[in-house]
């Protein structure tokens, strides 16, 4: 704790870097998903199923090795996994009815949902400076989308697409806030294990009903398999890093960091497809980073408080163990 407090600025920078790493893997998931779509495969639940299976396999093995009883009842993880699965599914479906720009703009609704949920359920309070940082981040996203104004609207059924996005952002917010609560007060390995188990069960059941014919009709090739593997690995890394960002920075900074995923996607286009992009994207990235710095610098105390709470919880646990051992010692000597 002494090191943490004396190196507070480094810790804040670490949270920002982790947030950008999450944003990077978000863009990588979008890239691999688009490559799968270009191969003529429309099976978003099947894609998610492999990601959840990897979480269940790896973190489930760690949980079994630790022989640790669950800290949270299993039935609480079911709605958490349900929200996580259907948030991704609804966003994917929204692209079929609305334009990419509209979906991206409405995705910002996740931020107010998160603020409302954390305010009422986690007791998080936001200062005016933090709210200013949030507004600056959203403005930075609007700058990036300014060059795509020609695609605003569009889509076959834009109203339906927009409604799906708004519902998806609510599911995302529920998932983020639930994971933040579990990551801060419970165990990260258990959260990822149970998310993987229930996410896999939900996706395999729904995919067998809605995507079975699609999967059977796919002409599997090396490229398609590699894209599925890339999507699963990217999703696994995204889920692995997410609890750290939620624990250290909270759901708000997690979603604010995710706003730069579009910038990472543009960088992929530059280096992979050799496309020319507008300078507004880089200006947008700079504005979002400034907003994140303002939010994180003001929220430094909350980051330190999270560490202090964890430190106190560990001390309490050690104190209980010591008390029990002392009591057992007295009883044995009495006998």
From TrEMBL:
GO molecular function: transmembrane transporter activity
The organism's taxonomic lineage, starting at the top: Eukaryota, Viridiplantae, Streptophyta, Embryophyta, Tracheophyta
Keywords: Membrane, Transmembrane, Transmembrane helix, Transport
Membrane topology type: Multi-pass membrane protein
Localization of this protein: Membrane
Record-linked Pfam families: SLC35F (PF06027)
Protein name: Uncharacterized protein
Family: Belongs to the SLC35F solute transporter family.
Annotated source species: Crotalaria pallida
Major subcellular site: membrane
The organism's place on the tree of life at top rank: Eukaryota
A GO CC term attached to the entry: membrane
Transmembrane segments: 12-37, 43-62, 74-92, 104-122, 129-147, 159-179, 191-210, 222-246, 253-273, 279-298
């Amino acid at each position: 704790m002494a090191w943490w407090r004396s190196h507070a600025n480094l810790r804040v920078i670490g949270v920002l870097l982790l947030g950008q790493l999450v944003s990077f893997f978000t863009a990588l998931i979008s890239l691999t998903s688009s490559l799968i779509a270009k191969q003529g495969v429309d099976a978003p639940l099947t894609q998610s199923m492999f990601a959840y299976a990897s979480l269940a396999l790896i973190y489930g093995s760690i949980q079994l090795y630790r022989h640790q009883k669950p800290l949270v009842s299993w039935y609480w993880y079911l709605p958490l996994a349900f929200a996580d699965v259907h948030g991704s599914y609804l966003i994917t479906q929204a692209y079929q009815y609305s334009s990419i720009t509209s979906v991206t703009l409405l995705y910002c609704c996740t931020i107010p949902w998160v603020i409302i949920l954390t305010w009422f359920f986690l007791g998080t309070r936001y200062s005016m400076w933090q709210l200013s940082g949030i507004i600056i981040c959203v403005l930075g996203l609007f700058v990036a989308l300014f060059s795509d104004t020609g695609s605003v609207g569009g889509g076959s059924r834009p109203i339906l697409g927009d409604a799906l996005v708004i519902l998806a952002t609510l599911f995302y917010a529920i998932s983020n806030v639930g994971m933040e609560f579990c990551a801060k007060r419970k165990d990260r390995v258990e959260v990822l294990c149970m998310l993987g188990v229930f996410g896999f069960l939900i996706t395999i059941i729904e995919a067998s009903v809605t995507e079975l014919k699609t999967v059977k009709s796919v002409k599997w090739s090396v490229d398609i398999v590699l894209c599925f593997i890339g999507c699963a690995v990217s999703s696994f890394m995204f889920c692995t890093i997410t609890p750290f960002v939620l624990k250290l920075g909270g759901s708000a900074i997690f979603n604010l960091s995710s706003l730069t995923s579009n910038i990472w996607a543009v960088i992929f286009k530059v280096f992979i497809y050799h496309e020319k992009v507008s300078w507004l994207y880089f200006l947008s990235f700079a504005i979002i980073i400034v907003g994140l710095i303002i939010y994180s610098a003001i929220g430094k105390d909350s980051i330190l408080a999270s560490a202090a709470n964890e430190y106190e919880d560990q001390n309490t646990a050690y104190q209980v163990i010591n008390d029990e051992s002392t009591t057992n010692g007295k009883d044995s000597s009495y006998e």
